[in-house]
Write a structure and sequence with these properties.
Distance between the termini: 24 Å
CATH superfamily of the largest domain: Alpha/Beta hydrolase fold, catalytic domain
CATH topology of the largest domain: Rossmann fold
Strand order of the largest sheet: 1-2-4-3-5-6-7-8
Strand content: 15-25%
Pfam families: Abhydrolase_1
Largest sheet: 8 strands, mixed
Order of helices and strands: EEEHEHEHEHHHHHEHEH
InterPro entries: AB_hydrolase_1 (IPR000073), AB_hydrolase_fold (IPR029058), Carboxylesterase_BioH (IPR050228)
Structural class: alpha/beta
Domain AB hydrolase-1: 27-260
Radius of gyration: 18 Å
Protein name: AB hydrolase-1 domain-containing protein
Helix content: 25-40%
CATH architecture of the largest domain: 3-Layer(aba) Sandwich
Number of domains: 2
Number of helices: 10
Number of strands: 8
Oligomer: single chain
CATH class of the largest domain: Alpha Beta
């Protein structure tokens, strides 16, 4: 399948690159933490028979420009709106931190007619703590990416619960092995774990910026599909429970037996075919 590459300038002049495939109504897939535009290429391929799928690289990754020191979620919203304006797309699918960006954008964007959101990390009543971030930031500043990744994985509950009982030295060894294997298998425009590690700072800051600000999302008029996975950490479920009650036009689906990586490519444990079935059902209705 042909994949085209395009670039657009965000409001502050930052370059945002995106990939395009398929034909039909426009659908943007906004990736999450430790991901890039290529992380959902298999999902995009399944959707491409029915939609023109756009896969933007968020700032700090792949085709797009760097973060700025004063970064706030509004910058991410401006990036998303720039791609929406360039493509004419009206549908968005946000994953994890990308779901928060889509939520915020849907508050004041008439261009978003439908939004699907997977595991938005919206913090409700202290559902997850940010205490680990000081240690993570120091380890990143010291160039100790392995330690930083372990700190973020534990603090953000990214791994399975058993990781909490695994000695830190063993987690570091496993993480270092994973990074080495990732770099050996990198192809073409893949963004490595090493390059993605510093972007965790900005993604978690999105969650902290929106902490306990969920009431504002009552104003969203777009149709919303809320997606989650039964094996995802509990704070994602708390966020989805809250949004189900708040959003005026929302439907909720949980993928039994899947985890937080459900939407990604199969080599990272994703089940793109299964996720695509629900997205097609949602986005095709009413077209």
């Amino acid at each position: 399948m042909n994949i085209d590459t395009h670039f657009v300038s965000s409001k502050d002049g930052t370059t945002i690159g995106y990939r395009q495939m398929g034909q039909g109504p426009g659908l943007l897939i906004v990736h999450g933490t430790m991901e890039s535009s290529l992380s959902h290429s298999q999902l995009a391929e399944v959707l491409a028979d029915n939609f023109t799928v756009y896969l933007p690289d968020r700032r700090g990754r792949g085709l797009s420009g760097p973060y700025r020191k004063d970064h706030k979620i509004q910058k991410d919203v401006e990036d998303l709106k720039a791609v929406l304006s360039s493509t004419g797309a009206n549908f968005v699918f946000g994953i994890s931190a990308g779901a928060l960006i889509c939520l915020q954008a849907a508050l004041n964007s008439s261009n978003i007619h439908k939004a699907a959101l997977f595991d938005p990390p919206l913090i409700i009543n202290g559902s997850v703590s940010g205490d680990f971030m000081a240690r993570y930031d120091k380890e990143i500043a010291d160039g100790d990416l392995v330690s930083a990744l372990v700190t973020a994985m534990l603090g953000g509950q990214m791994g399975p619960p058993v990781f909490n009982s695994v000695p830190r030295w063993l987690l570091k060894m496993l993480t270092k092995m994973m990074m080495t294997g990732d770099e050996k298998n990198t192809k073409n425009d893949d963004v490595t774990i090493r390059k993605l590690a510093p972007t965790i700072h900005y993604d978690f800051n999105l969650s902290f910026e929106l902490e306990d600000k969920h009431e504002c999302f009552r104003a969203i008029d777009a149709e919303v599909l809320l997606l989650g996975a039964s094996k995802s950490p509990n704070y994602f479920k708390i966020a989805l429970d809250t949004l189900t009650q708040i959003l005026p036009h929302a439907k909720r689906i949980e993928f039994a037996g899947l985890n937080h990586g459900a939407t990604g490519n199969t080599n990272r444990g994703g089940k793109p075919e299964r996720v695509a079935q629900e997205l097609l059902r949602f986005f095709k209705t009413g077209i």
